[in-house]
Write a structure and sequence with these properties.
This protein has 511 residues and is α+β, with helices and mostly antiparallel strands. The chain is built from 20 helices and 15 strands. The chain has one domain: Cytochrome p450 (Orthogonal Bundle), CATH 1.10.630.10. The model has no long low-confidence stretch (mean pLDDT 93). The structure holds protoporphyrin IX containing FE. Protoporphyrin IX containing FE binds next to helix 6, helix 14, helix 15, strand 6 and helix 20. This is 7-alpha-hydroxycholest-4-en-3-one 12-alpha-hydroxylase-like. It comes from Cottoperca gobio (Frogmouth). One of its GO terms (cellular component) is endoplasmic reticulum membrane.
Length: 511
């Protein structure tokens, strides 16, 4: 008995400690948001959240209102769903709300890369330098050349000219935009190593095709990889693909290329100067491939599909594209030079801009997460205040709170190509909720410290792709009555959404 009591007490203490760690004893304190722990200790609501994030968050919002804390896989996350109060999260100082802590964790799990001190500063510095202003001009020009290499290489070859080609629209759009984006960032095959420009371009096409095929395999594993629930066989496959990319995007491989973007070049150099190992830099190149190529292709698909399903929108965009070509004295002619779509021309397309923004409103659904570094008060626009605990997380899911809010965007599930246009043709930025102007009226790029640095380049990529397709090709859905596919609900929260199935279309050169 003398020995049993301490053992029992020890067991009890361990049990209580374990339950405490599992979050079983956490109670809502005065001044905190409503707390919903879910039924499963520690896991909380993770299964329902993972199954369909959108549906789950809509249910929670209905139950608790626009601020609530839920338990998810060991974390307590406060969701803020009032767009008027988003500034309190996205503008909060970095010593209270931190983006990197969460990102570092995810990047290690999903890409096998361990971040170094000051990494985010390097990324921001060179993104500011090369993904905006003059740097963007170079990147856009490079994208144009690569799109031409991929889309227009059959021009003049009697065999394929004017033959209808069948493909899945998702597959085609993702394939072309991924490959052109990859070549623009990671460089081209040098002409002299292949013997001629023609051969070098052929190699670019073959290499980028192989990369796209592997990227899509990874893409399909991605949601489960991010949640850490891959089956053992899938885990091996993910590891194999990661190694393939570490190798294909290695510093050594990149050094053999021409036209590497200054963005990646400078990031590589800065990391080398900080003494980071070459193998680690190669892994980071895969992280950036993911960030830069995982969203634009799927968005290109939605843009084309919405245009094809809305003849009025298609006609308005086509009219604008033809007008810009004329204004810049360019013409697509059989046997003539390829058109050169410059950044200046891309700045004269308000209708296409609005169509792109509307596409992203309907199909980009990121989940923005911050780690709470110290106890803080969340101040709402209407004066409410909530106490938030250190160690928790705060998240914003703008898709529900903004993108499909019928007050901000009437008839929110319809594609209206001119939703972001004023009657005088300028960009519309005035949107209201309960009579008050909403600052964050569309958030495909996130906001604050982690806002997508590639947003200007991505927009140009989408516009260039649509522009070239419109002027050089005839294209149509195989089934004109095709329904717009549903969004693949496993991907809510991961940026640009993908459809749950592809849609068949056909295309051929106009001339
Ligand atoms: C339609 C296309 C795109 C969409 C919808 C998109 C969306 C986003 C979003 C929502 C984030 C923030 C994630 C967060 O806060 O957790 C992000 C981050 C990022 N994006 Fe994009 N993106 C796109 C294209 C691009 C392109 C083309 C590039 C590069 C050329 C790029 C580079 C990045 C990088 C490097 C980050 C990480 C930023 C950081 O850690 O501060 N993105 N993107």
């Amino acid at each position: 008995m003398g020995l049993l009591l301490p053992i029992l007490l020890g067991f009890l203490a361990a049990l209580i400690g374990g339950l405490y760690l599992l979050g079983v004893f956490r109670q809502r304190r005065a001044g905190e948001p409503p707390l919903d722990k879910g039924l499963l200790p520690w896991l909380g609501h993770v299964l329902e959240f993972r199954r369909n994030t959108l549906k789950f968050l809509q249910r929670m919002r209905q139950k608790h209102g626009d601020v609530f804390t839920i338990q998810l896989g060991g974390f307590y996350i406060t969701f803020l769903q009032d767009p008027q109060s988003f500034g309190s999260v996205v503008k909060e100082s970095r010593d209270k709300l931190d983006f990197t802590k969460f990102a570092v964790h995810l990047v290690r799990r999903v890409f096998g890369y361990t971040s170094i001190e000051g990494e985010h500063n390097i990324l921001q510095m060179f993104s500011n330098k090369h993904l905006k202003g003059d740097g963007l001009e170079l990147m856009t020009q490079s994208m144009m050349n690569n799109l031409q290499t991929l889309m227009l290489h059959n021009i003049g070859s009697a065999v394929e000219e004017r033959t209808w080609m069948d493909d899945g629209l998702f597959n085609y759009s993702y394939n072309i935009v991924f490959r052109a984006g990859y070549l623009s960032l990671y460089g081209n095959e040098p002409h002299n190593s292949e013997g001629s420009e023609k051969k070098a371009k052929e190699k670019d096409r073959a290499v980028s095709e192989a990369l796209f095929s592997e990227f899509r395999k990874y893409d399909q594993l991605f949601p489960n990889l991010a949640y850490g629930v891959l089956m053992p066989g899938q885990r091996l496959e993910a590891q194999r693909i990661m190694e393939y990319f570490w190798n294909s995007l290695s510093v050594q491989t990149m050094k053999t290329k021409d036209n590497i973007s200054r963005w990646l070049w400078d990031i590589q150099q800065a990391k080398e100067e900080r003494g980071e190992k070459e193998s680690a830099i190669s892994k980071y190149m895969f992280v950036l491939l993911w960030a830069s190529q995982g969203n634009t292709g799927p968005s290109a698909f939605w843009l084309l599909l919405f245009l094809m399903k809305n003849p009025e929108a298609m006609a308005a965009v086509k009219e604008e594209v033809d007008k810009v070509l004329k204004e810049f004295e360019q013409e697509v002619q059989p046997g003539g030079p390829l058109i050169n779509l410059t950044r200046e021309m891309l700045m004269k397309t308000p209708v296409l801009d609005s169509a792109v923004e509307e596409t992203l409103r309907l199909t980009a659904a990121p989940l923005l997460t911050r780690a709470v570094l110290q106890d803080m008060t969340l101040k709402m626009a209407d004066g409410r205040e909530y106490f938030i605990r250190e160690g928790d997380r705060i998240a914003v899911f703008p898709y529900i709170a903004v993108h499909i809010d019928p007050e901000i965007h009437p008839d929110p599930h319809s594609f209206k190509y001119d939703r972001f246009l004023n009657p005088n043709g300028s960009k519309k930025t005035d949107f209201y909720k309960a009579g008050k102007k909403v600052k964050y009226y569309n958030m495909p790029w996130g906001a604050g410290v982690s806002m997508c640095p590639g947003r200007f380049f991505a927009t140009n990529e989408l516009k260039q792709f649509a522009f070239l397709l419109l002027v050089y090709f005839e294209f149509e859905l195989k089934n004109p009555d095709e329904k717009i596919p549903e969004i693949d609900f496993r991907r809510w929260g991961f940026g640009a959404m993908q459809p749950d199935r592809d849609v068949q279309f056909r295309y051929r050169l106009r001339y």
